[in-house]
């Protein structure tokens, strides 16, 4: 059973960089044909895809967030990390790490972590 767990600060100040880590257990982030994603849900809105890192290590980001987004990984810890720079209150959301097993089929989700951007 694959499990994903997000961790990181719940409060970030405007203009700072949001950093979240997803720890994966029950499966390696470097094997198989999977896409390891970050998605978010702002209050009162739908899910928004942020980007992913593939098992190969290649990354791809949402065009609307690309200039501020970086996804990396630590294979020794089986973790992948989201960094979102220059945050504003519009980046306030519940952030999820999610495994995509292909064709945008999200089969495993983290429980989500609330991030609030406020001074």
Description of the structure:
This protein is an all-beta fold and 119 residues long. It has no helices and 11 strands. The strands form 2 sheets. Strands 2, 4, 5, 6, 9, 10 and 11 form a 7-stranded mixed sheet that branches. Strands 1-3-8-7 form a 4-stranded antiparallel sheet, with no helix packed on it. It starts with a strand and ends with a strand. The mean pLDDT is 96.
Mean of pLDDT? 96
Given as residue ranges, the uncertain stretches (5+ residues, pLDDT < 50) are none
What's the alpha carbon Rg, rounded to whole Å?
Answer: 13 Å
- Note the beta-strand portion: over 45%
The arrangement of helices and strands along the chain is EEEEEEEEEEE
End-to-end separation:
39 Å
Number of helices: 0
Count of DSSP strands: 11
- Helical/strand content category: mainly beta
Oligomer: single chain
Q: Into which percent range does the helicity of residues fall?
A: under 10%
The biggest beta sheet reads: 7 strands, mixed
Principal-axes shape call: globular
